[in-house]
Amino acid sequence: MHACRSTLEDPRYIGDHPLYLIDIGNEEKFVGKLAEGVAYVAKAIYPRPVIVRFSDFKSNEYRQLRGGEKYEPEERNPMLGWRGVSRYISKSYEKAFRLEVRAIRRVREEYNLNNVHVMAPFVRSPWELERFMEIMRERGLG
Hints:
By secondary structure, the protein is mainly alpha-helical. It has a single domain, classed as Phosphoenolpyruvate-binding domains (TIM Barrel). Helices cover 48% and strands 8% of the residues. Helix 2 packs across helix 6 (94-109). The radius of gyration is 14 Å and the shape is globular.
């Protein structure tokens, strides 16, 4: 089993805040680049499984991305703040999380890499996990 990390976990890999890309109508930049990066790793070790941890940047890391200051709060302790699953299911960020789900679905369907599995970081409650799974099912990653 291989965990897909390194470059994909660097906020600079894409460089733009996902909500900024949505606002300017360039969601494809995010989805395409993320899908390519995951597919590159998954193809290299196919058929062994790859576990992709969905993004878990802290608000201070997201603020550094192009457009980030508009969308990110200044938190006293970003390590315990708005991150992980609580971010994905929030009204203000869910549409950006759906881009990540779309990228993983693309890897599985268009790149035909069924060895890609996902992991949810920083789950705080069963309710959060249930909502997270509901969003995934709605987007075809059940």
